[in-house]
Specification:
The protein is α/β, with parallel strands linked by helices and 325 residues long. It has twelve helices and 14 strands.
């Protein structure tokens, strides 16, 4: 079985989808001949032609609104937004159009659109490129938000997203593109949407995260084990809707929970998840539900981002605090 980076797994997933579904279209800024800013779509225009893989103007609003119309005509658009922060130019389509199509039309029109975009910090990008806006997207009813943390999941979740009748915002963390590698099956396979993954089992505290926070949580769990603390790690995979059943079962066992996100404390999905845990597991908890997040400021310039972003030491410290409460 080949070992791929997360970036290679996404590329492989796109290729599998283009081969299986003749009505799939890839378009966005520089995704054709150049293969996108991170070369995710490199070679796809040459293989599938300019009618199915093509460049667009620098106009995110046009990219997503065009996706709305194409989906209504039976296509399965796979638009790429160069960086997720640029989607603010297309919020009308993202909020008022895509998620409402099936309901608005009584099921006669589809919105089978998978929007791909990188997000997240740790790679010293310019301003606006590293913002974590997933909490805002997760509050849009009818829109799925999917975030892989491994290469295996990236390919399988992407193909499952493309199959979904609901529109999906598929977010790929910049720092994970080429820093995570694992075995990825050849051919077409899917990983179920809306289902969290217990990455590591434990008995003393549950660490809940997504994207970059998952490998950091695994590292933190290893460090905690050296201190005699057994941490369970849950990868949400899909942050809208959230698999609360898996979280509830884990917290019922460990009696403690720490929610992790790169986004600012006031942003992301941590607050919502914490409130659900408090409601569902109140009688199970031996300590207040805690969180590890970035501070409530705009994302800093590159020289300061390592100080700003949550890290393994932050997770270890908070988990220890919760266990010793």
């Amino acid at each position: 079985m080949p070992v791929l980076t997360l970036a290679q797994a996404v590329s492989d997933g796109l290729k599998e989808a283009m081969q299986k579904y003749d009505n799939t279209l890839i378009f966005g800024e520089d995704v054709g001949k150049n293969g996108g800013v991170f070369r995710i779509t490199a070679g796809l225009q040459e293989e599938f032609g300019e009618d199915r893989v093509f460049d667009t103007p620098l106009a995110e609003s046009g990219i997503i609104h065009m996706s709305v119309g194409l989906a209504q005509e039976g296509f399965m658009p796979l638009p790429e937004i160069q960086f997720s922060g640029f989607i603010v130019e297309a919020m009308d389509a993202l909020i008022a159009q895509l998620p409402r199509q099936r309901y608005r039309s009584g099921g006669t029109r589809e919105a089978q659109v998978t929007i791909r975009a990188p997000y997240g910090g740790g790679v010293h990008t310019p301003e606006l490129h590293s913002d974590s806006l997933e909490g805002m997207f997760a509050q849009i009813p009818g829109l799925r938000v999917v975030i892989p943390s491994s290469a295996y999941d990236a390919k399988g979740l992407l193909l499952a997203s493309i199959e979904s009748k609901d529109p999906v915002f598929f977010l790929e963390h910049l720092r994970l593109y080429r820093t995570v590698k694992d075995e990825v099956p050849e051919g077409y396979y899917t990983v179920p949407l809306d289902k969290a993954n217990v990455v590591r089992e434990g008995s003393d505290v549950t660490l809940i995260g997504y994207g970059l926070m998952v490998p950091l949580a695994v590292q933190a769990a290893q460090a905690l084990a050296e201190k005699g603390i057994s941490a369970e790690v849950i990868d949400l995979r899909t942050i809208s809707p959230v698999d609360y059943e898996t979280i509830q079962a884990s917290v019922s066992k460990t009696h403690r929970a720490v929610v992790l996100q790169e986004a600012q404390r006031q942003a992301g999905t941590a607050g919502q998840i914490m409130s659900e845990i408090a409601e569902r597991n109140f009688m199970d908890l031996d300590a207040p539900v805690a969180r590890v997040t970035a501070p409530d400021t705009v994302f800093p310039f590159g020289m300061a981002e390592e100080l700003w972003m949550p890290n393994v030491d932050d997770i270890v410290a908070k988990a220890t605090e919760v266990v010793e409460f």
